[in-house]
Specification:
Elements lengths: L12 E2 L2 E2 L19 E7 L7 H11 L3 E5 L5 H14 L3 E5 L7 E5 L4 E5 L14 E6 L2 E7 L9 H18 L5 E6 L23 H11 L4 E2 H5 L25 E5 L4 E7 L14 E5 L10 E2 L18
Parallel strand pairs: 1-5, 2-7, 3-4, 9-10, 13-15
Antiparallel strand pairs: 3-14, 4-6, 5-6, 7-8, 8-9, 10-12, 11-12, 13-14
């Protein structure tokens, strides 16, 4: 059994330090160089405890070098006890920022894990700082695993918190000149093409102009939405509600995103296979290959849906 948090360092675990504006590297510091070819993946697992039987075989199948996880829903100590031996045995170092029952993010890396920080510098709380961001340098790239607040209802206190949180993340990225990737569940569909039916989402969060403007602010730091840039005209979703057969009809949203410098991207795709079968998360992993693509330039969705529903009105299950 893996020991609790105080012993994690000896097992290749990293106890992250909290972020503050004083911790940020100066914008005048030289840019670190990118490292070797790397496969980066992001996946909202919607409770890592419930997804162990899916996560470990997936790691063996897809061989990601860096994995960003969201909604782990475990304290750091509980995560270590549950998965410590399994992950370190596969060569991963781990950085965690977790809490019981809600939220929680993690970074797994086989290509180094340096300068670990958790949280967003000077970010807001609700009311306390939630476990929504952890970052580290992996193979010369500053990688952020983020779980953006949902927002719940437009114009609510949680919606305002979401926009404030994104603003703090944008300011942090602007102050850091290191090569960067921001990966995770953004809880925002960037454009109408990223939802199955824009009319179905009227009056809901995830699609409002202020949210989309805040998301574009992240791209204003020099990053690119690599899936959309790689597949500009394709139907690509990463999240499907568990109810009403939404997955089988391909009635979803693209809210799990990777923002990066696109010149290194050789493949970018959604692993829809991981959403199939028993006890899946309601999100699928997004995989991005830098410099080399071991499986070729596959995608945008693997495998593609066999019978997507198109051209008919569907009411969102949560609006019933």
């Amino acid at each position: 059994m893996t020991p609790p948090a105080q012993a994690l360092l000896g097992l290749g675990w990293h106890k992250a330090r909290g972020a503050s504006s004083a911790d940020r590297p100066s914008a005048r510091s030289p840019r670190a160089r990118y490292g070797k070819p790397v496969r980066v993946a992001t996946w909202n697992v919607n409770s890592v405890k419930q997804r162990v039987g899916r996560l470990l075989p997936w790691l063996e199948e897809r061989h990601p070098d860096v994995v960003c996880l969201q909604e782990t829903k475990l304290t750091d100590e509980a995560f270590a006890e549950l998965l410590g031996d399994e992950l370190t045995g596969r060569g991963y170092e781990i950085a965690l920022y977790g809490e019981a029952q809600w939220n929680g993010v993690a970074l797994l890396s086989r290509v180094g894990l340096e300068e670990v920080e958790r949280g967003v510098p000077d970010g807001p709380g609700f009311p306390h700082q939630e476990a929504r961001a952890v970052s580290a340098t992996c193979a010369g790239v500053r990688i952020h695993s983020v779980y953006v607040p949902n927002g719940r209802v437009p114009d609510s206190d949680h919606y305002a918190y979401k926009l404030q949180w994104l603003g703090a993340l944008q300011r942090s990225l602007q102050a850091d000149e290191r090569p960067t990737m921001v990966c995770g569940d953004m809880n925002i569909a960037p454009a109408d093409a990223d939802v199955f039916d824009p009319a179905a989402y009227e009056g809901h969060t995830h699609v409002t102009p202020p949210e989309r403007a805040a998301l574009r602010g992240l791209l204003g730091t020099g990053l690119h939405d690599v899936i959309r840039e790689h597949w500009p005209q394709e139907r690509v979703f990463t999240y499907w509600d568990y109810r009403a057969g939404m997955f089988h009809q391909d009635l979803g949203m693209r809210i799990d995103l990777v923002h990066a410098v696109s010149e290194r991207v050789r493949a970018a795709w959604v692993d829809r296979q991981a959403r199939k079968g028993s006890r899946p998360s309601d999100h699928a992993p997004v995989i991005v290959d830098l410099d080399e693509a071991p499986d070729g330039d596959i995608g945008p969705v693997v495998p593609p849906p066999s019978a997507p529903a198109r051209g008919r009105k569907v009411k969102l299950p949560q609006s019933d």
